Write the C-alpha cells for this entry.
Amino acid sequence: MKTITVALANTPYKIYVGEQLICAKNRLLQPLAMGKDVFVLSNKTVYQAHGKKLHAFLSAHGLRAYVHLVGDSETSKSLRSAISVLQAIVRFDRQKDVSLVAFGGGVIGDLAGFCASIYKRGIPLIHIPTTLLAQVDASIGGKTAVDLPQGKNLIGSFYQPKAVLSDATFLKTLPTPQLACGLAEVVKYGIIKDVTLFSFIEQNYHALLLADSAALSHVIEQASRIKAKIVTQDERETRSIRTILNFGHTIGHALEAAGNYRRYNHGQAVALGMLCAADISAQLGLMPAATVRRIETLLANLTLPVQIKHISLNTILSYQFRDKKFSGKTNRWVLISGRIGRVCVKQNIPLAIIRAAVAKRMASV
Ligand SMILES: NC(=O)c1ccc[n+]([C@@H]2O[C@H](COP(=O)([O-])OP(=O)(O)OC[C@H]3O[C@@H](n4cnc5c(N)ncnc54)[C@H](O)[C@@H]3O)[C@@H](O)[C@H]2O)c1
Ligand SMILES: [Zn+2]
C-alpha cells in the first residue's frame, strides 16, 4: 500500500492506494476523527459488485453503516437527489455523529461531497472511489458539485475529504470504455508533469486495459501524487496553478457538449482534445510534430478515439466559442512546452491555428 499526503495547511488528508485495500484487516479509518455511524452513498451497480467487501471493512472498524443507493447516471447529480440524500441522512443520524462514505464513481463522489459539505455545515467525508477516473481525479482536490438543467457542475463547494481509499482491485469489474476513460486522464498527468508515467503507460497499456491491479496501482499512485501536489499549491483555483489540469479539456468540453454528452464520454473527448492541443503546440513550434504522433499512438493503443466522427467542424468550434474563455480573440490554452512532461499556458492563439488543429482530427468519412 502507498500513502500520499495532500498537504493542505488547514485540512491535510491521506490518499491510500493499493490492491485489496478494502478488507477487514486494514483499519485505515481508525486514525480519523469520526463517530460510529457511517452513511454510505452508492449505486446498485457498485454495491452489488463490491458491497460485501465494504461491509466487512466497515464492520471490522466497529462502524454502523446505513447504505443509500441512488440511480446509476449523471442525472443523480441533481439538487433533487441531494435533497433526498440529505433527508435520508437526517433519518439515520440519531446519534448526531454521522460521517459520509462515497462509494462509487465520480457521480457518487461529487454528490456525496456536496451533501457532506452542507449537512450541518459539514460532516466527515471519506472517498472510496471505484472508477479509475474517480481515483485519479474526482476524489482528489475537494471539488464537489451537482448539475442544473442549464449546465454541469453549476452548484457546488470546495470540501476536502478526511481520506481517499483507492483500491485498484475494484477496477476489475469496470467496463473497458470506463477504464480507458480514466486512462485518458492518466495520460494527461503524464503529458503535463511526468514523462516517466507516460512511458510506463506506453509499455504497459495492454496490462492496464486488462485491469491488471499492480499496473493500475502504479499509475493511480503516480497520478494521485501529481494531482495532490497541484491542488496543494492552488486549493481554491485562485493561483492559476490548477489550470494545467485542463490540458486537453478546452476542445474536450466542446466535444462532449456538441455530442450531447452521449457521442463521447469524458475521457474520449479529452483524448481528442489532447491531440488538438498537441497539434496547436506543434504548429506554434513549441514541440516537434513527432510528439503528436507519439501521443496519438498511445491513445489509439488505449482504445481511445483519435479521429472525430459524426460532429461537424463548425459545430465543435461554435461550442468552443460559447466558452467564456473564448470571447473574441481572447483565449487561453495549456500547451506542451518542448517535450512530454512540460506544459505552458498561452493566450490568444489565432483562430486559424485552432481551426486547423481540429480539422486535422476530423475523419474523412
Ligand atoms: N470533483 C471533481 O474534481 C471531478 C473531476 C472529474 C470528474 N468529476 C465528475 O465525475 C463524474 C464522472 O465520473 P465517472 O467517470 O467515475 O463516472 P460514473 O460515476 O458515472 O461511473 C461510471 C459508471 O461506472 C460504474 N461503476 C463504478 N465503479 C464500478 C466498478 N468498480 N465496477 C463496475 N462498474 C462501476 C458506475 O455505476 C457508472 O455506471 C462526472 O459527473 C464529472 O463531472 C468530478
Ligand atoms: Zn477531465
User: Anything to note?
Assistant: The pocket of nicotinamide-adenine-dinucleotide (ligand 1) is lined by residues 43, 45-46, 49, 72, 74, 77, 104-108, 110, 130-131, 133-134, 137-138, 141, 143, 152-153, 170-171, 173-174, 178, 181 (CB under 6 Å). Residues 14 and 163 are 5 Å apart (CA to CA). The chain has twelve helices and eleven strands.
